[in-house]
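agent> Task received from the user: take the single chain below, predict its 3D structure, and emit C-alpha cells. No templates, no multimer pairing.
agent> Plan: (1) validate residues, (2) run structure prediction, (3) serialize to C-alpha cells, (4) report one or two observations.
agent> Step 1 OK, no nonstandard residues flagged.
tool_call: predict_structure(input=
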Amino acid sequence: MNEIRKRCIAAVGLVLLLITVAACNSLIDANLAVTPFAGGDPETRVLYLGINDATKCGGCSDNEGSWTVTIETGSNPQVYSMQVDSTVSAWQSTGVIVAEDDTLSIHAGGQICYVIGNDGSPGSFCGPDGIAENTSTICYLAPGLPRNSLVARIGTGDPFFVGAVYGSTTAGGEQNYVPPDLSKDYFPLSSGSQWFLRDAKGDWLPTHHASTTILQDIEGTAVIDGVSCYVLKTQMGDKPATYMYLHRTKDAVYEYASGTDTSMTTYSAPIFRYKLPFTQGTSWTYQAGDETVKAKVLFQEMIAISPTGDYPAQMYQSCWKLQIDGNGATDYEWYAPGVGRVKYVTNSINYELVSHKIGGV
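)
tool_result: status=success, residues=361
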C-alpha cells in the first residue's frame, strides 16, 4: 500500500511539474509578443530590418557602420529604437509585432560605408535611402529595391523599401485631403514632389552657391498620432536637413511634428500653418515655440523669375502673396496654382523657384 501511495505522489508531482513548465513557456511566449527587441519569432508578424546589400553573393564584409532606427506602431504608443548593423548579411529582428490592421512608422538616420578599399580605407557612404536610381539584383537581400538601402519585411512577407522615412496607415487612420486637380491647387502636396529655390542674386553669377539655395522634397508619408502626414524635407544651403510632418485637410495645412535625422518633436497639438483656400484678407495666427506668428493673405499678382545659366525665365500668373510676421521679422511668400511656393523673401534674401515637380502630375 505504501509503495502504491509513493508512486501516486510521484505521478502527481510530475503532472504539476509539467503544468508549471507549460505555464512558464506560455508566459515567455506572451512576453516575447509584446516586448520590443527581445529576439526570436513568436509570431509571423515580427518586423525585420536589413541593409539591401549583396548578402547572397559575398555578404556584407566590406561594410562598416550602422543606421539608427526608431519604430512606432499605432497599437503601442511607445517608440522603439535600435541599430541596424550594415555588416550583418541577414534580416535583423526588431522583436516588434505589427498586427494586420496596425499602423507603422519608421524613421532612420546616419551614414554607413558600403565599400571599403582593399587597404582598409573608407570608401563610399550612403544614408538609409541607399543609392538613388539603382535597383538591386537577385544577389541582394531585397531584389529590385534600391541598393544599400534600409529595407524591411513583416514575418515571411515580401520585402519593402523603408529608407529614411516610412509610414503606413490603415483604413481607420485619418488620411490627407487630396484636391481633385493638383495642377490647379495652390498648395499641392504629394509624394515625390520637389521644389528648388535659389537666391535671386545668383542671376549675376554663372552658377548659384549652395549656401543660398533651398531644396524641398516630399519623402512619402508617416503616421503621427494616427494621422497620415506628408514628410517635407528641407535642405537650406549647406545646413543639416530638417523635416516637417504636414497633414492636409480641405480647409488647412497642419504641422504635427518636426525634427532632424537624429531627433523629432511631436507636438501635443498640431500647429495650424495655413488656412485654405487662399482668399484675399484672410488671416490666422499660430504658436511657433515661444513666438506668436501672424499670417495674412494680401492679394494676387504676377511673378517673373529671372533666367540663370541653368534654367530659363519663368512667368507665374495669379500668385497669392502672403505676409508672415514672427520671430521679430516679416517674411513674404508667393504661391502659384499647380506649383506651390514660387518666391520667398526672408532676412533680405530673395529666394526664387527655378525648378519643380509635383508627384502624380
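agent> Step 4: summary for the user.
The first helix runs from residue 2 to 34.
agent> Done.
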